[in-house]
Specification:
Helices cover 56% and strands 14% of the residues. It is α+β, with helices and mostly antiparallel strands. It has one domain (2-85). Strand 1, helix 2 and strand 2 (36-38) form a beta-alpha-beta unit. Helix 2 crosses helix 3 (40-72). The longest helix is centred in the middle third of the chain and has 33 residues, at 40-72. The chain starts with a helix and ends with a strand.
Length: 86
């Protein structure tokens, strides 16, 4: 990611897609400069298992785990496209 980011820093938003299964995957991508992390497969598994409630559960679980990771690493605020989280 670092090589791709250096050529277009600030010009093109960096989105990470694929491989984000755990809170640490999401945190690492954001810490390296990604503006967003796409988590399609876990959400689809939640949809297949429990429908809309499964999707909500997966998203809530990832959010809670990301907040835990931030707390463990003493990151107080994470700026997001929707505002500030944390």
């Amino acid at each position: 990611m670092m090589e791709g980011r250096s050529c277009c820093w600030g010009e093109v938003p960096v989105l990470i897609d694929g491989g984000a299964w755990r809170r640490t995957d999401v945190f690492e991508a954001l810490a390296l400069g990604a503006q967003a992390v796409l988590v399609g497969r876990p959400v689809l598994y939640g949809l297949a298992a429990m429908g809309e409630n499964g999707v909500t559960s997966v998203i809530e679980m990832l959010k809670n785990e990301l907040e835990l990771t931030m707390a463990l690493l003493a990151v107080l605020i994470l700026k997001t496209s929707r505002g500030v989280m944390g």
